[in-house]
What we know:
The protein is α/β, with parallel strands linked by helices.
Amino acid sequence: MAEATGRSQSWPWWPLLPLYPYGRRQTLIRELIPAQVWSFEQLQGVLYVAVPIRMTVLRLRRGLLLYAPVAPTVEVRRALADLEQRFGPVQTIVLPTASGLEHKVAVPAMARAFPMATVWVTPRQWSFPMALPLSWLGFPARRTRVLFEQGVPHAEELDWKALGPLDLGLGTFLEVACLHRASASVLITDALVAIGREPPELFGADPTPLLFHARDRGDEPLQDGPENRRRGWQRLVLFASYLRPDRLAVPPWGEVLSQALAPGLRSLRCYFGLYPFRWLPGWQEEFQALLPTPSAPLRVAPVLERLVFPRCRSALLDWLRAMARDWEIGWVIPAHYEAPVAVRASQLADLADSLEVGTWAPDGGSWAYLAGIDRNLLRLGVVPRSPGVPPQC
Ligand SMILES: [Fe+2]
């Protein structure tokens, strides 16, 4: 794929959604299924809690489809131009989520990069704090279509199934899974993940977020090595999964400040030695509990499990069972964490069964912080007590 330089990784629209690594987006491009499916991964996160976000590229019979676009840097556009040379033009760009802002923000720029492509979006798109029409958000009005309401693209090669719409109070949760029959791959967005034990390859060029979180004190220098990268990744996953993990204490500010500005740490890269975290025994076990197993290769993303689905379990189960019943599945490709994940249709049915009989919307341990947010949103009336799932689209 194309050679990368600093300029080719520039993403000038980063202030629209100011997430790490801001104006420079390195992209890891991998062929997931030979000559059929490709992954374009970039890092995205708040401060140093950054996880990969993925665009999946499908080869169609006469061109390419982009599912969940990432920032179209020069590096990305060059790699797509290489694929277009081999397999035909980008025909279709899909925004597969109504609520995932991190997947929405790059769509207008990607649409401008491919002016002949049709843009398909899920129904019930929304913006906050003001409801704005898609064209005001930069979506090209004349070539933007709404999935299901205006049909579906490439029905002769692809199948589509919606999870939702689910009423979140502020807006709607809805994501759309896409089966690429030729490769038996199911593309999904946020609902299911396979978290890897090892740090993603994407951190190879700049492991700073991993090394930052690998430490136990603010005055420890950032030291690179495989063990520190792994340790930092595992802690970073706990932050991304639970926002405030159970096995994490916040030391008094006097202690935090006394460790700041140590030699070698007086830079923004190290946040000047400010490190308001103290990890407690048992955090590794908390991480282990998030990993896939041979019988359960995917899990529900924890933040969604506790903040989006607590009162919508049946919609999630119906979606999993419909995919298991109707589709021949070999791979699942989520928009975050590991991909491709080898999954059989029966394993999606098994996941639905285990969610049905297991504890749902737990409050203890690392779930406590998310559960507290959920309770507060309910108390304030921000989210509905009964989500009143609108009719299927
Ligand atoms: Fe996402």
